[in-house]
Amino acid sequence: MATTLFRNLRLFDGLADSLAEGMEVLVEGERIKEVADRPIASSAARVVDCGGRVLMPGLIDAHVHAYGVDADLGRLDKLPRSLQALQAAERLKDSLKRGFTSIRDAGGADWGLAIACETGLITAPRLFYPGRALSPTGGHGDMRANVMLDQFCGCCAPTQAIAVIADGVDEVRKAVRGELKRGAHAIKIMASGGVASPSDPIYALQYSDEEIACAVWEAKAWRSYVLAHAYTPDSIHRAVRLGVRSIEHANLIDAATAAFMAEKQAFAVPTLVTYDALAEEGPALGMPPESMAKLSSVREAGLGSLEILGRAGVRMGFGTDLLGAMHRRQSDEFIIRRQVLPAAAVLRSATSVNAALLQKEGQLGVVAPGALADLILVDGDPLADIGVLTGQGERIPLVMKGGAALIDRL
């Protein structure tokens, strides 16, 4: 059993507001064996002198699209799945370099990609995924051209890389059960209009109460949960009232709806970096004009939504939602959130809060005995300068997943 002893470090444990000095951390196998404020004795361990760097939990991004290799999702559905899988593998490797040891895909990733991650066929973070997102006809996941709304024969059907169309309670039930059978850890639905979809206005309510309630019931039957794409107060309140556990984006939320989310203990996963990236790069990367026209309203409300959610006490996870080449900006979300939130709260969103969202509380997102040894070393203090986490991992010389150092430049 491989054993590693970390010494001469400053510790952010995923929970505290400050760094702990004079700590040592012992890893045995895939888990953390001991965390102590005194020297730890181990004759068999590889000793890592951290040189005063910060040791902290591996980062977790709760809103990634591994197969989102093109900014134009309509064009994405025309790409071969084999090509998408190879490109997805590269995106996942790049996330690992940035210190992300777990990601939750928010639509598209499948059991084949998950197996490749789990078995080490590709070097990648842990992958949690809901399979394809469920969308009604004309909803946020419906990227079909208007001339393609009828049924297809199998040889001509579009790929539907990110979402699947399901209308009515029976179709929703079948789609949920199908994704769970294929290993989905959660189920995603579209509850409001979106930016990337060509035809639905942001304010559009998607899915009926009965359809949402059906998805929630089926997910809970598997001890899973539903996450919902939703921007507006109406769409958010309705989804949470019907049992949705995780609201993605939530840019246009108001105080009353945030208070309701806090009361129901729902999570929010803002993804502000994607709107800045789209504004700057979207047209050049092929983002349709219809999508660019919808972007400004949600982008302008982004920072305000963090303040509203924070005041209400809603648990905020960390997400990015970046498509195509914009994925390189993944860690810029830290800088954006730091404009309105304390550094410790931002770090917790990407560690212990996201772990709770993934139903892995105490297993991921913390440096504590018994937790999985998903750890990163950081040059600099992210509580004093959260910018040390940005870039492509230049200031993260060590990334450990399950006790194995997948990146080691010490």
Q: In the CATH scheme, what's the topology name of the largest domain?
A: TIM Barrel
Would you report the number of β strands? Answer: 18
Low-confidence stretches: 152-159
The domain count comes to: 2
CATH domain class name of the largest domain: Alpha Beta
Task: Give me the secondary-structure category.
Answer: alpha/beta
Query: How large, in whole angstroms, is the Cα Rg?
Result: 21 Å
The CATH superfamily of the largest domain turns out to be Metal-dependent hydrolases
**Anisotropy-based shape:** globular
End-to-end distance, in Å? 22 Å
The major β-sheet equals: 8 strands, mixed
> Beta-sheet strand percentage?
15-25%
Number of helices: 13
The pLDDT mean sits at 93
CATH arch. level architecture of the largest domain? Alpha-Beta Barrel
Query: What is the helix content?
Result: 25-40%
For the structure shown, list the relevant keywords.
about 400 residues; alpha/beta; Urease, subunit C, domain 1; TIM Barrel; eight-stranded mixed beta sheet; five-stranded parallel beta sheet; about 30% helix; globular; Amidohydrolase family protein; Metal_Hydrolase; Amidohydro-rel; Metallo-dep_Hydrolase
Please give a quick description of this structure.
With 410 residues, the chain is an alpha/beta fold. The chain has 13 helices and 18 strands.
Provide a descriptive summary of the structure in words.
By secondary structure, the chain is an alpha/beta fold. The protein folds into two domains: 3-57 and 363-408, Urease, subunit C, domain 1; 59-330, Metal-dependent hydrolases (TIM Barrel). The chain is 31% helix and 20% strand. The chain is built from 13 helices and 18 strands. The chain has helices at residues 73-76, 81-97, 111-119, 168-181, 209-221, 233-241, 255-263, 273-281, 289-300, 302-312, 332-338, 343-349, 352-357; strands spanning 3-11, 20-28, 31-36, 46-49, 54-57, 59-64, 100-105, 126-128, 133-135, 163-165, 187-190, 226-230, 246-249, 267-269, 315-316, 375-378, 398-401, 404-408. The strands form four sheets. Strands 1, 2, 3, 4, 5, 16, 17 and 18 form an eight-stranded mixed beta sheet that branches. A five-stranded parallel beta sheet has the order 11-12-13-14-15. It has a three-stranded parallel beta sheet with strand order 6-7-8. α4 (168-181) packs parallel to α5, α6 packs parallel to α7 and α7 (255-263) packs across α10 (302-312). It is globular and about 65 Å long. The protein starts with a strand and ends with a strand. Residues 54-402 form the Amidohydrolase-related domain. This is Amidohydrolase family protein. InterPro entries: Amidohydro-rel, Metal-dep_hydrolase_composite, Metal_Hydrolase, Metallo-dep_Hydrolase, OTAase-like.
